[in-house]
Amino acid sequence: MYLELAHTLRSELNRYSAGDYLPAEVQLAARFEVNRHTLRRAVDELVREGSLLRRQGKGTQVLGRPLVYPVAAGSAYSESLSALGHGVEAVLLQRRHCTATAQEAEHLGLPLNAPLIELQTLRRLDGQPVCLIRHRYCATRAPLIADYTSGSVRQFLAERQLPLTRTFSLIGARLPSREEASVLLMPRHLPALTVLTLSHDALGNPVEIAHSTSRSDRFQYQIVT
């Protein structure tokens, strides 16, 4: 019975917008004339699929359908998604110093454990958090990004005479950490999409290594050649 109910609920999701909440469990149970245990099992199916998200103290939220993000040399996150008609917001969550891993050192042409400066940003689409990005640069560039607080990082750098071009992208998937799942409002059993991106300046010098973690229920990456 719960699978039949899940099918009915799934077919009705197009009546909702991303971010809307379903009616309370007691209301849905009464409407479908089932007990709350059966209703919860039906909702659990849609949560596992990534169509719904339970938010403690608030209810069951409807998640948006996946967006197609074109990955190309000149593509920039905020500009690309704004062009698709979405409201894009980028905010700075943290600025910190760290050291280069072996992989980062190789890509950036730096010694192992070289000092780096990191900006951790959160992207929201139409008010919903969808992506965490860790932008890392050689620590010598700290003064250049000292004034960054929000908006497109790539645009911020371009306005300071440092336009960047994507030269390498590595796409993967993994389960989100507890912190990532909390910030992105996603269940921990749902895989997150990861992208490691290397960007160069106009002279071909490596400048930025970026690690992004995105909700897999919200994104599909299209490789543009």
UniProtKB/TrEMBL annotation:
Record bears the keyword RNA-binding? no
Key words, A-Z: DNA-binding, Transcription, Transcription regulation
Domain of life (superkingdom): Bacteria
Domain (HTH gntR-type) ranges: 1-65
Entry's InterPro entries? Bact_HTH_transcr_reg (IPR050679), Chorismate_lyase_/UTRA_dom_sf (IPR028978), CP_lyase_PhnF (IPR012702), Tscrpt_reg_HTH_GntR (IPR000524), UTRA (IPR011663), WH-like_DNA-bd_sf (IPR036388), WH_DNA-bd_sf (IPR036390)
Q: Does the keyword Transcription apply?
A: yes
Protein name (database record): Phosphonate metabolism transcriptional regulator PhnF
- Give one Pfam family: GntR
Gene name tied to this protein = phnF
- What SUPFAM superfamilies does the database record attribute to this sequence? Chorismate lyase-like, Winged helix' DNA-binding domain
Q: Which PROSITE patterns match?
A: HTH_GNTR
